[in-house]
Write a structure and sequence with these properties.
alpha/beta, 15 helices, single chain, 6-stranded parallel β-sheet, 3-stranded parallel β-sheet, 9 strands, TIM Barrel, 320 residues
Length: 320
């Protein structure tokens, strides 16, 4: 069965070299076991294609890997957004049918971000935008960022909100235990919070056609939706929002399987959202193509639903 993996990370050689020259060594080398190998795979497209072929993945939607550009000053963020988007478009053109791309944008400057979205989609042919969650501790429910969502709705493209470690104000309690602030817990908690802030802000009443994608089987939100709704109904918020949080999540969000290859988590998401709201992803090179493919081929669903999850939903969401 055809498979398109929708959260797969890359660096260009120039981006890697820039990181090495301008960031502390721990940002781009072994901060955890296997990190050096991951950094090599981020730029090795021959190995990437071999891995796709051997595991049966026909296409990848590529996103700029950590740290992205959201944490930099505006000038550098604008420069590297444009450069990596240009390089990504060239890469996609050189491998027709194998790769698609999501743009990096300088979120710190919403006006510049909106302009780069227009260029990336209309000139470069990229299929959406990735934002690495909070912007130096600021969340996207702040009204100054809403022009980015307005542009996404106008362009009919999704925004992928990818995790980063919690904002500086929230990260301190995690630091006692190495790794806790990252994929072990902090990433999911960060995006979970961010999604609820967006929903409760009224964003999706203002932009009802907007689509947002999150990974890792929905960052635990499918599990929590009943309790969220139950306590939402006890607050003043229902008076100013049109729907319950769970309904916004079902109407305006897609989730992916990236890095969460566990049937109990999948079944919760599947029973909560149905097959139409789930897309296949690996989180390459941080996770294994083979493990991700084995998982998706063994989930207990019909062939029709498996086909939706493996490629049809991605084709529709990203207009491939």
């Amino acid at each position: 069965m055809k498979k398109i993996a929708v959260e797969e990370h890359f660096w260009t050689d120039d981006f890697r070299d820039y990181l090495r020259s301008n960031w502390s060594q721990t940002q781009v080398s072994a901060s955890s076991p296997g990190q050096d190998e991951i950094n090599k795979l981020l730029v090795d497209f021959d190995q990437r294609i071999k891995g796709m072929n051997s595991s049966g993945i026909e296409g990848q939607i590529l996103t700029l890997g950590f740290p992205g550009v959201e944490g930099w000053d505006v000038v550098e963020s604008i420069k590297w957004s444009k450069k990596t988007n240009d390089d990504l478009a060239t890469l996609i053109q050189s491998h027709p049918g194998r790769f698609y791309g999501l743009a990096a944008i300088p979120v710190q400057d919403p006006k510049a971000a909106v302009q780069e979205m227009e260029r990336a989609v209309k000139k470069l042919g990229l299929k959406g935008v990735q934002i690495n969650s909070h912007v130096r501790g600021e969340y996207l429910d702040d009204r100054k960022y809403w022009s980015i969502f307005e542009q996404a709705e106008r362009l009919e493209i999704p925004i992928y909100i990818h995790p980063r470690t919690p904002s500086p104000d929230m990260e301190k309690p995690y630091k006692a235990y190495p790794g806790l602030s990252a994929a072990m817990l902090g990433f999911g908690a960060e995006v979970h919070l961010h999604v609820l802030r967006l929903i409760l802000s009224g964003l999706f009443d203002e932009f009802p056609k907007l689509k947002v994608v999150i990974g890792h089987m929905g960052e635990a939100l499918p599990y929590w939706l009943w309790r969220i709704d139950n306590h939402f109904d006890r607050t003043e918020l229902p008076k100013r929002l049109g729907r319950e949080p769970s309904q916004y999540f079902k109407d305006n969000f897609m989730i992916t399987t990236s890095g969460m290859f566990w049937q109990p988590a999948f079944l919760c998401a599947y029973l909560t959202l149905g097959a139409d709201n789930i897309m296949f992803a690996v989180d390459y090179p941080h996770e294994s193509n083979e493990v991700g493919v084995k998982f998706i081929e063994e989930i207990p669903v019909s062939d029709k639903d498996r086909e939706k999850i493996c490629h049809i939903n991605a084709e529709n969401t990203f207009k491939l």
